[in-house]
Amino acid sequence: MSVKVHSPNVVYSEDCIESRYEYNTTSVSVNSDGSYSAIPRTNTMIFKTDTCVPKTGMMLVGLGGNNGTTVAGGILANKYNLCWTTKDGEKKPNYFGSITQAGTVGLGVDARGEEVYAPFNKLVPMVHPNDIEVDGWDISSMNMADAMDRARVFDYSLQKQLRPYLEKIVPRPSIYCPDFIAANQGERADNVMTGTKQEMMQKIRADIRDFKEKKNLDKVIILWTANTERFCDITEGLNMTAEELLNSIQNNEDEVSPSTIFAVASILEGCTYINGSPQNTFVPGVQELAEMEGVYIAGDDFKSGQTKYKSVLVDFLVGAGIKPVSIVSYNHLGNNDGKNLSSPKQFRSKEISKSNVVDDMVGSNKILYADGKKPDHTVVIKYVPYVADSKRAMDEYISEIFMNGSNTIVCHNTCEDSLLASPLILDLVILAELCERITVQLDNEPQSRRFNSILSILSYLLKAPLVPAGTPVVNALFKQRSCIVNVLKACIGLQPGNHMLLEHKIGAPLQQVSSMSTQANLMKHATTNHSVLKSKNQHLNGQTHGHVKTPSQ
To answer: Is 91 a catalytic residue?
Structure first.
């Protein structure tokens, strides 16, 4: 089952989908008297998507941690359909929590005027998680089966079935720099690289090539899911340019972090690198190197629980004309992430990534925030070993309402930390790989373009989105998801859903109004040897420039 668009603006060939797409925007200026001048703009673009899905490998830094064992075990359980029994009965594996595997996209309306939803991964060909090969590094030498047991995430009966698969997997040695992570991690560090930072970077590159060769892979994507590091210094002569950074690694500079070394190694091997933790891995030199090498990077910090909820709730409040003035977020967790974050320097990295999430939503309403003052925003994280991976998140939102009244919302969220993060890891890898197969050509340019080397399209999955210089940071969750959906729709020549449903609002059967012009377009389409849908029951997706489809599709 897949989505096929029948339009003169979309061409399907053996190895690609090519769509001619009109990108509509509005340029706005604010006049001296406070009025607004708006000018609609239209740019024609050609989206080309390679439909040949490559054999893909995923290398995790922190493979032996809770996230690494959970995502690897989850893939295996789904791949081999491993079912298990709990006190509530038999359970079956799934990919719930993944937008690519369990999400849907509204395509349009059917003959009855009802919305038609298609699986997210049927818009364009994507890698299936069951087909992803897994490898990686960890400072702990514990095999994956024992690490899974240590993580206490999966039910015991599932662990018993996964053990024969996971006990064969032992992480590759990783980089251990005690200055960058909490001192309490030293007891785990029995599987570490030795040598200079240059030598360790070369070892990582060799590991990537070894994995790619042994598994006969077309692509490898690297993702950091290891401990949160402290922020590193950003200074002239150290890491402001690619040249400075490479020289600093060569000179074994102390202030080059392990995550930055992994990023540089990945970029030099031509592999997309994703940072799932909050530290400032992507110093200016890394960003410049990625651009020079034409390699994608994305970050920072998985957005799975409290922050995701916050980005929805604050967007709702501000959009409703309600003014949040105080946001207090408390967490306690007992996994190794919580243990590492009990160190002040590592907590500071997490605090920064969690605290900026409301900025763009607050900035969108200058009626509420005329003075430019942001809400008071405090984040607290405590380590409580007993709760293990079952993180507790408690939030209080105080807002000003009508006539200076006050409204308080308090919520409690029990987040199964790794079970929420693991689907995000899969989505990040799957969508990053897909982005490598998409090019965009402006109508007035001779050459096509790739996405910017900083993949801000993945912001929906990340707490503190990394964006290209001069690009607005968007944290509102609906906007972030819509970005992904609408880019994929553009790849198949569909316009963004507008939610207007005008055919119902004005009582006009729009599909009949436009059927003659649509039929004419289809007949023209047929003369150019493109696929034509033949049906007596043609209808549109609720937009005058929609595609034709039958109820059986």
So the answer is: no
Alpha-carbon distance values, 254 to 136, 179, 189, 240, 348 (Å): 24, 9, 19, 15, 20
Mean pLDDT by 10 residues, the chain (553 residues): 90 96 95 95 96 98 96 98 96 97 94 90 97 98 96 95 97 93 82 97 98 98 92 93 97 95 98 95 96 96 87 93 95 74 64 74 92 90 85 92 96 89 97 98 92 96 92 91 96 91 79 44 40 33 33 38
Whether residue 413 contacts residue 87, with contact meaning beta carbons closer than 8 Å, is answered with no
Pick the catalytic residue from 197, 350, 354, 549: 350
315 is catalytic: no
- Other C-beta atoms lying within 10 Å of the C-beta of residue 15: 9
Residue of 391, 395, 417, 489 marked catalytic? 391
DSSP H or E segment with residue 522: helix 515-527
Active site annotation includes 395: no
Tally of CA atoms within 13 A in the half-sphere of 139 that contains its CB? 18
Q: Is 289 exposed, middle or buried (0-12, 13-18, 19+ CB in 10 A)?
A: buried
The DSSP letter of residue 496 is: P
As a whole number of angstroms, the distance between CA 549 and CA 546 comes to 10
The H or E element spanning position 25 is: strand 16-30
Is the pTM of the predicted complex or chain greater than 0.70?
yes
Say how many CA atoms lie within 13 Å of 452 toward its Cβ: 14
Choose among 511, 490, 493, 492: nearest CA to 501.
511
Catalytic pick from 135, 207, 301, 337?
Answer: 301
Tokens read off for 519: 């039929």
Catalytic residue among 203, 463, 489, 549: 463
301 catalytic? Reply is yes
Strand partners, 275: 224
* Lookup: tokens for 377: 């925003």
